[in-house]
Design a protein that fits this description.
Distance between the termini: 53 Å
Structural class: mainly alpha
Radius of gyration: 26 Å
Order of helices and strands: HHHH
Number of strands: 0
Strand content: under 5%
Shape: elongated
Helix content: 55-70%
Length: 89
């Protein structure tokens, strides 16, 4: 009796996991494949980072902190921004 119930659960028409087609094709999105995104020109990206780093230093009155830290924080900010804007295209 339990065998019939288990079989019935697996073969329900509304159960996509039990469908032979679902097993063959898998999901529509294949792992390891990333969507195609337009690349930004490296020089434009560098200019954006430089500008953002400058504004960070300006906000603290060019006192304290370090140029390297400003650059790294600006780079992370710009890369997040670019990744977000490119993922919507």
């Amino acid at each position: 009796m339990l065998t019939k119930q288990r079989t019935a659960r697996r073969s329900k028409p509304g159960n996509p996991a039990a469908s032979p087609a679902a097993k063959k094709t898998g999901s529509a999105r294949q792992p390891g494949l990333l969507p195609v995104r337009p690349e930004i020109d490296p020089e434009i990206r560098r200019q954006m980072i430089a500008r953002a780093a400058y504004y960070r230093a300006e906000q603290r009155g060019f006192a304290g902190g370090s140029q390297l830290q400003d650059w790294l924080e600006a780079e992370a900010e710009i890369d997040r921004m670019l990744a977000g804007s490119q993922s919507t295209h």
